[in-house]
Design brief:
About 75% of the residues lie in helices and about 5% in strands. It is mainly α.
């Protein structure tokens, strides 16, 4: 359903930089803004997930190094 809405908005005829919509300008504009907002939000979420994955990998490496060092100290 969402993909259908996006496709409809993206294929809507543009005239002189304005959407010609026989009274539908406001709703089409609002949908386009919401799609842009959702794209930005999705990108921010994707970036945050990548950062968390990197942090998790870094933590795992440090944890194993620390465990290894503690094992050597206790020998």
């Amino acid at each position: 359903m969402e993909l259908k809405i996006v496709q409809q908005v993206e294929s809507f005829p543009h005239v002189g930089g304005m959407i010609e919509a026989s009274g539908k300008f406001d709703i089409i504009t609002e949908i386009a803004r919401e799609i842009d907002r959702l794209r930005q939000s999705t990108q921010q979420t994707r970036d945050a997930m990548r950062k968390m994955e990197q942090d998790q990998e870094s933590f795992a490496i440090h944890y194993h190094e620390c465990t290894k060092t503690n094992g050597k100290c206790n020998e």
